[in-house]
Each structure stands twice: as C-alpha cells, then as structure tokens.
Design a protein that fits this description.
heterodimer, A: 535 residues, 23 helices, B: mainly alpha
Chain lengths: 535, 467
Amino acid sequence: MILSLPAIAQATPSPASVPGANVFTSSLLMSLVVWVPVVVAVAIATMPNPRGRYDVLMKQIAFFTNLGLLFVLWVAYNQFATFLPTMQFEEKVTWLPAIGAVYHLGVDGTGMTMLIVSGLVGIASVLASWGVRERVRSYFCLLLLTQACISGAIVAHDMFVLLLFWGASVIPIALLVLGWGGARRESAAWRLVGYWGLGTGSLLVATMIVYAASGATSFDMDVLLKAGLAPRVQLAVAAALIVAAATRLPLFPFHGWARDVYADAPPGVALLVAGSASRLGAYLLIRGLIAADPDASRLLSPLLATLAVLTVVYGALAALRAVDLRAAGGYLALVPGGVTVFGLAALTPLSIAGSILSLFSGGLAAALIVGTCATLSERAQTRSVQLLRGLAPRMPVLSWLLVIAALGLIGVPLLASYPAEAMILFGSFKSQPAGSFAVAGALVLVAAVVAVVLHRILLGSPNPDAPAVSDAALGEAWYLGLIAGALLWVGLFPGGPKLPGTEQVVFDPGLLNVMSAGLTDIASAYAGPSPAGSP
Amino acid sequence: MRSLVLLPEAVVVAGAIGMLFLGRPGVMRRGRRRYLPVAATLVALVALGIELWVGAVLSSFFSGALVQDRFALFAKAAVLLAAAAAIAVTDWSAEESQPVGLAMPLLAAFGVMVAASSGDLVGLWAGIELAGLAAVVLVATRRPDLGIRLLVTGAVGTALLLVGIAYVYATVGTADLAALRQLLQVESPTLPLALPVLLLFGGLAVRAGWAPYQFARVPVALGASPLGTGVVVGLVAMAAVTVGIKVTAVLTFRPELFTSGLLVLAAVAMVGGGAAALAARSPRARLVYLAVGQAGWLVAGLATDYRAGLGATLFLLGAFGVAATAGPAALGGVEGGEGGLAGLGSLRPARAAALAIAALSLAGAPPLAGFFGEFAVAASLAQSGQFALLALGLLGAVLSQAAALGTVRAAYFQSLPDEARRGAIPSWTRFSSAGAVGLCAVIVAYGVFASPIMGLADQGAKALGLR
C-alpha cells in the first residue's frame, strides 16, 4: 500500500463515474453551506422559548441543520470533478467595488477535504453538546454561527471574505468558552481572543501588504496570490502568514491558548476548535504560502520545520507531565498540526499531498482525542490522571474510543492518519532529512506517552478513592463513533470503495482522489530540485 | 425639486421646536405625551426619506454658502439615521426632560446637516457650534456642572477653531472652501498657513473629544443622561468629522500641513481607546471608550487625504454615528459596573442585543457595520503606505473587541439577579424595544448592504473634488 501512495496522490486522469453524482446541482452550493447555519441561528435566536420549553426542539433544529449540510456536502463531494485542477462550485459576485472586494467562493481538492472535516466535526459537535442545559438557545446559535464562519473561511476565494469569516469565528467561540466553559473559562477565552486576535491582525497586515503592492485594486485571491512581489515584501507577507497560521493551528510558541481551551471549553466546542477551526491555520499556509509563494516558502521552510518538530515534541512531553486528563488530550491534539506543517515545510509534492490528507486525518484525530478525554472525564466525574485507574472493564466503549484516538494520533495502519503521515515522512526524507528523523522520533515519543497514559488510566485495578464511573451514553458513543468511523473509513478506502473486480467506485469517490484535484497547481513549483540562488 | 432640497433641514428644525412646545406642561395630555418619541423618530425618518428622495439634486443656495452635493446627501442621511435610532431606543424614564431630550438630538443633527452642506468656513463653524450647544443643553438637564464643563471645553475648541479660521482667512484671503482649494493648489505650504491649520484641527479635536482630548469629554459623557452621552459621543463627533473631511478635502494638495498631526491623533485614539475600554468596568464607560477607539479610525481615514480614504471615512462615519449615538441610549437606566447588566439578556433580550451589537460594531467586530468601515479605512491606509498606523489600529481593534466581549458576557452570561434586584432592571416601552430591534437591524444591514452605501460614500468623496 505504501509503495502505491505516490500513484494514488496523482489527480485522476479522467472523470470518475460515481453513482449519485449530478443528482442535485445548484450554483449556490457554497453559499448554502455558509449561510444556512446563519439563517437557522437567527431563526433560533428569535424563536419564542418560554421557560425553556423548546430547548430540545432547538437542539433538534441544530442537529438536522447539520445533517442537511452534511448531505449537501456529500452531494458536493460526489459531484466534485477530481480531474479538474481549477476551483469548483465557484460563485463570483462584485461586492464592494470601492475597495475591490468580491464575493468569491469556491473550493479545490484541499478546500473540499476541509469542508468534509468541517461537516463531520460540525454534526459531532452538536451531538456532543446534547447535554447542554443552560441557555440552550444562545449556545446553539453561537455554535451554528461558528460553523458558518469556519465554512466561510474554507470556501472564501477573496481575502476580504476570508478575513471576514476568519475574524468573525473568534467571537462566537470565545463566547461559547466564556459562557459554558469550566473553571478556567475566563483565562481560556481571553487567551483565545488574544492569540487569535494576533493571528487575525497578522493575516490582515499580510493581506494589506499584498493589496498595496499589487496596485490596490482587488482583494480577489486570483489577483493577490499571483501578484509579483519584491523579495523583501514576499518575506514580510510570508512571515505574517506564518504567525497567523501558527496562532490558529497552533504551533509552538503560539500555543498558549490551546491547553485552556481544549481543557475547559464544553466538549462540543473543544471538538469544533480541535477538529476544524484550528485546521484553518494549516489550510491558510497551503493556500497563502505554499501555493502562492514558492520562493518565500523555500526560504522559510527550515523555520516552519523547526516549529513543527518543536510542536510535536512539546505536545508529547507536556501530555506526559499533565495531571489533568483533558489537558493531556489538549496537548496531544497539538501533535497532528505539527505533523501537517512539517509536511508543508518539506516542500515536495508527496509531503504536501500528505499534509492535505492530514488536514482531514489530523483534524479528526485531534477532535477524537479531545472529545474522548472530555467525555471520559465527565463520565468518570474527575479529570485527575492520578485518580483514574482501571477504567477499561468499567467503560469499555470509551476505552476503545480512547485507544482509537491514540492510534489515530500515532498513525497506525487502517486509520486515515497512516497514509497521511507515511506520505509526509516519505516525502520529506530527501528535502528535510534531519527534520523527518526528528518528527519520526517525536512520533515514537508520542506513542510512548500515549502508551503510558493509556496504561495509567485504562489498566490496573480501580482506584477505590475515585468517584463512580459510567460508560458513554448513546449520544456520546455516536458522536465519537462518527469521528472514529470516518478515520477508519478513509484509512480502509482512501481511494474509495470499488465494486469487486472492477474500477467502479461506489458511494464515495475516494478522499485521496478528491483532495488531489488542484494538487498539481499547489505542488508543481516543488516538483523538481529547488532553484539555485532562491532568496 | 430644487426648492425641496432644504426641506429636510426645515422638517428637523420644525420638529425640534414642535417637541419643545408640545412637551411643555399643559399643552398635551399626559397620556398622549408618550407618543412624542414616536413623533420625533418619525420626524427624523421623514427628513431622511426626503433627503434620499431629493438630495441627489445638485444645487447651491445663498451664493454658495450652502451646497447640496453627494457628500452632503451622505452625511445628512447618516446623521438623520443616527438621530432616529437614538431617539427610538432611548429609555425615557432615565432622561430628565423628555421635550429637551427629543429636541436636542434633532438640533444636533441639524448642526451636522449645516456643516455637511456648508460651502465656507463660517458655515462649518456654525454647524459644529450648533451640535455642540445642543449637547451642552442636554447634558445640563441632568448635571448643570457637567454642562458648564462641556461648555467651557467646547469654548476652548471654538476659540482654537475660530482663530484657525481667521488666520486661514487672513493668510489666503477667502473663506470659501472651493476658492480656498484652488488657491492652495498653487500656493506653497508656509508656516503662517501651517499654524492656523494646526489650530483648526486642534479645535476640532477638542470639540469632538478625539484623543488625547477625550479626557476632557469622557467625564461629561459618563455623568450625562444616556441620550446625552450618545449625543456628546456620537453626534458632536459626527459634526467634527464632517468638518474634518471638508477641511481635509480643501487641503488635499497640501497634505504636509496636517497629515503628521492626524496620524499621531489617530494612533493615540485607536490604541488608547481600546486599552481604556478593556480596563473600564462600567458598561457606559466601555461604550464611550470604544467610540473613542473607532473615532481614531475616522481620524486615520482623514490622514489618508485622498478619495478612497475619505470615502472610507465617510462610510465609517455612518456606522460610527449610529452605534455611538444609539449605543449609550440603548443602555438606558442600567447603571453601575458590569453587574448592572446581569440578566439583561434573558429579561430584556431586544435591549441586550442592541447593546451587544452596538458595542461590537464600535469595536470593529465582523460582520457588523464598524468592521466594514474599519476595513475600508485599513485598505486606504495600506494604499498610502501607513503600515505602522495600520498595525497600531489592529492592536486597538483587538483590545476593543476583547472589551466588547466583556459587555456581551455581562449581559448574557452573568447569572440572573434575584427577585429584589430584578426590579432594578428598567422596563422599556414597546416602542423603545422595537427601536432596539431596529437598531440591531440597521447596524447589521449597514454591513450587509455595504456595497451601495460605500458606493454613495465614494461619490460623496468625489463630490469634494477628490481623485
């Protein structure tokens, strides 16, 4: 399987016929994905709800909205032309001609991959939030607005639109943490606002520098990302983009918000942040730096690789020292982001393809570890790693899910993170030999840490001083199972399931095929040896 | 049509006088007085409707002393919208005098309208004075001492402004804006010209309470009635910015006369306003400092001194005016620290939403009106290469947004007050609650329909002769 990975990562040469394709078409597919949650959030906000009588109805509305969106995304995923390198489902309307902003949406293979993660994590986060009892209306309003912001940032093809959604996502998430978080919610929310505010500011500065340098006529990415910039300007823009991405993903040393948010946000919110909101950082690096500016990427790749390795090592060591299970999960959730960025820093077509797949696998693995730790802590009535012992026989479902989450982080075969990490490591061996050994070593360290943590809490005799425990409820098992199932599905069928004895794909065109659309455009600059004398 | 161009001004002045007359004891039955806010809002909205209908007719009156162009159309429409929103959301139980409270915002709006269509320096001065005096009267109804303080600070601003105008007149030989612009195009910048310009902008800064002069104005805003705060922070600042835009357009060929000073003012206001808002604990103080921060963006837009920049400033002026005038008014009788807002989200949802949206818009949070305006100004700052100021502005915006989140948290997430304290949360009239919903709609719609509004603002900047 590993040997065939480079071949899999190439774009499919001809249209693949998938049953279900072209069943439903709409020129406003991307707008639907972005604006339907907003409309539903406004509807929920204005619904009469005397004494919380319709709390359950609001949860159901949020759930079915997400289910509907997932269906729309599944349609888009199936209709996605894997043989086309261009943006698809494009919408382009002049918005603010005075400053050159265009309502320009669209996705390539990378964007489609992100949308699928966002859809899966979105519905999982609603299920994870089923237990919310206080201010249900406000909670689900904010959750839906967050989802809309994330989707908007993914499909934006205009820097103004991207900044709008990128910046707007901070407010509902911070409010969700402030309103429904744990004991350290204040610290978590303000840190989030501070770090993500810094990131938004950096992104805005980068955008404005390119805007000014390109003649200040348009914010459309088609114009901005192709503007010919002086080397110094390129470097300044790249540095600002790295700061923006590093605060969001997060990368060491911009990770200050992660522990508190992952440990103290409500499970549904932590899941959403770990699974999709934070992946926007790596997505920005792909779109804004790797695809747009090969010279600056080459120059800054050692810095990116160093940050990535430090992030993986830091995540592992901090998790080992953590006494709070949710904090340990939060630290471990840093690992996939580091691996993704390392693949980008390696700057080879294979490692970049691995990083794009890692947006999916890493997002789901991070969401799964954060979600499992949160649910397990709630069910065990304690977060202390010292108190949790011998949980496996008493919490079999959650224990298995924790094991799958841990395996997802390490990247074992049969899970989607395996092909992603294999592609990253194999692709980076030539261009970043020291870094790839360091990342491989760090992943071994992560495996050791995970083994120690799992041994501590799952095996052995139960602690008599610990409170009573109970296994996952149906909703919790469903949301965690959905994420684990997606990780397994793509791990088993990265190219899509095929009818026995034929090349006919069934139900799923294959994430590897979909994500490869547009990969040639992104990675073509790195296909050969790096040009001598690059700045 | 030309004869109707000044009708909005006439409607507004007649409305203000009518409110003062009808509000006198014995003129109307007590039960009917509750319809006066509805009438005052309608006056502002009717004037706005007429302005939008006939305001596009280009014309001049009194030998060019009053000029109706796209700039005047935009500025008048913005101030009428701000005044209507503020009157509609006001909690009249927290105001000392309803007739004065209804008339003064209309008169302040009239002042801005005069400044917006003024064709010479004297008209600009008259407009800003009118707005300032209306604010003094409104503040004095609750706190005469603060009214006097505002009057004295305003007088200092006026003195600076008048001396500046007089010196400009003495140096160049005319007070007519179009003639001034033509003369300055050929005249080289000299010290005798730079000094009056400095005085003129200094006077505007003191009048509007731009940083660092907000320290003279903030205590007044905090002690006044809620609507008084809105008029001081919103409408008077609108008048000053309107004058600032017109003066900047005149000086556009000589940017060296004013740019450096405005850049410093903008930087101090943006960062200082955000930091002070974050440090403030009282919701009203926070709103006031948020307005100071956004005023910094307005000043930064003035410093760009070309069409796109001034167009962006004009667009932001509308967003600022609505949120800064109506925001404090929406706060109503809620007094004290953050705790005063506890339970507002569940007990008074419309009011809480209006307050939250006004605060977030003043902080420049996406996707509200303030964000669109600040982004447009940021784009013009980038265009003119002012990246250091842009970075400071972003720092200020982050601080402001954190502060605005504090207000939202207090209104929505602080636990409901006990029964005894519930009584302390004022109850609003149905009209006032509808006004709060309307305010939310206006701030959101201003962002959603930013394209035509920004286009009109750009035409406004073009009408001033900018390229």
